[in-house]
């Protein structure tokens, strides 16, 4: 199976000590590595205001991770762990590889088009057309 | 309707003479072009053509992790603004709705504003 890219965001209660959050991240990383997957990025966004109340909380500690895995069950396992952890109030996993692929395709196409465009505008100027063809 | 800009009539005649000497009242060629005919008082406006902000910025991926950007495409009470209000192109609107819904799911963006 090909590798897939995932975003994993979870929100902890604001009153959890940071050491506990670090511990949780470490256990998740361990679980990821056990399945021969990779953690590409871990970001602690820190305390942020929630857009709406979650479990009567108005703030939460956001943690953002990017994973590269070829096992779908891994995400299932991670979500299960987050669900059981009391300090986690909300989590979200998003599969991103297809969107990234699409983005790369579009960016490439744009680059190609931009590379072609300057010559076209030069040809539009009278007199410059012959010079452009002579160069080409 | 916040970002619709209405220009008064004299601005419209300026505009049409600028773009190739079309007769005044022929429509600015924008989204709100009207049938040619005599001018009727102050009620004629030329609607400024709205362009897709994501196309202008050449965005290939709308990031759901940036609620500041998504916020401007959502009504105060949390509804997603339609394309005809924001001028977003079909493709970007499609990506935008997905991004907004993801952001809502992780409490970066409200489903509905609280009272």
Draw up the topology in text:
The complex is a heterodimer of chains A (136) and B (115).
Chain A: E1 4-12, H1 18-34, E2 38-54, E3 57-69, H2 72-84, E4 88-95, H3 97-124, H4 128-135
Antiparallel strand pairs in A: 1-3, 1-4, 2-3
Helix pairs in contact in A: 3-4
Chain B: E1 6-7, H1 9-18, E2 46-47, H2 53-56, H3 67-71, H4 83-86, H5 90-105
Describe the structure.
The complex is a heterodimer of chains A (136) and B (115). Chain A has 136 residues and is α+β, with helices and mostly antiparallel strands. Chain A has one domain (4-99): 2-Layer Sandwich (Alpha-Beta Plaits), CATH 3.30.70. Chain A contains four helices and four strands; from the N terminus they run βαββαβαα. Chain A has helices at 18-34, 72-84, 97-124, 128-135, and strands at residues 4-12, 38-54, 57-69, 88-95. In chain A, strands 2-3-1-4 form a four-stranded antiparallel sheet. In chain A, β2 and β3 form a beta hairpin. In chain A, α3 (97-124) crosses α4. The longest helix of chain A has 28 residues, at 97-124. Chain A is globular and about 55 Å long. The two termini of chain A are 45 Å apart. Chain B is mostly helical and 115 residues long. Chain B folds into two domains: 6-47, no CATH class; 53-105, Irregular (30s Ribosomal Protein S18), CATH 4.10.640.10. Chain B contains five helices and two strands; from the N terminus they run βαβαααα. Chain B has helices spanning 9-18, 53-56, 67-71, 83-86, 90-105; strands at residues 6-7, 46-47. Chain B starts with 5 loop residues before the first strand and ends in a 10-residue tail after the last helix. In chain B, 20% of the residues are buried. The interface between A and B is medium-sized, with 21 and 17 residues.
